[in-house]
Specification:
It is a single chain. The chain is an all-alpha fold. It has one domain. It contains 7 helices and no strands. Helix 3 packs antiparallel against helix 6. It is elongated. The N terminus is likely disordered.
């Protein structure tokens, strides 16, 4: 019996994550931010064409960081993986997961938007939008497929009751 359960669980790891999913979202966000900041530097230098709002931007970025850390802490407390390509151990429906199915991705997006506002770099806003679009199109469908295969009806019920982003 135990061998059958282990075989079934190991089968959940298949198919392997596509190459596009293997790039972790935080690395994707940092890469997009670096490209947009470099492009801003080439186009505008140190100027902020629309102005800077360091306090408001800092507060928004901090809110995104806190949201993301709360989600990560909720995963850690539930003893499940933080890796998008890892096998989920538990269906987490508490903490920020009551409000949206992807609070870590939302937190990263909000951090990028807050940083853009604080630094006055409109191209960083474009990287936040690109990050959310890429994650929504590439990472989230892969993760939702894994969650559906792992938890079946429990995940489908959760997904019906909880929005993808917020």
């Amino acid at each position: 019996m135990a061998g059958t359960v282990e075989a079934w669980l190991s089968g959940l790891d298949r198919p392997a994550a596509p190459r596009s999913v293997r790039l972790r979202p935080p690395a994707l966000a940092l890469g997009l931010a670096a490209v947009s900041l470099a492009a801003h530097g080439l186009l505008f230098g140190l100027a902020a064409p629309l102005g800077r709002a360091p306090w408001a931007g800092g507060a928004i970025a901090a809110a995104g960081l806190i949201w993301m850390l709360w989600a990560a802490w909720t995963f850690r407390r539930a003893a499940t993986t933080l890796r998008p390509t890892g096998l989920p151990g538990v269906l987490v429906e508490e903490g920020p997961y009551r409000f949206g199915r992807n609070p870590m991705y939302l937190g990263i997006t909000v951090m990028l938007l807050g940083t853009a506002l604080g630094l006055g770099t409109p191209l960083l806003t474009a990287s936040a939008v690109a990050f959310a679009a890429i994650v929504n199109a590439v990472h989230v469908p892969h993760e939702e497929d894994r969650m559906t295969r792992r938890f079946g009806g429990w995940y489908r019920d959760y997904a019906r009751a909880t929005r993808r982003w917020l």
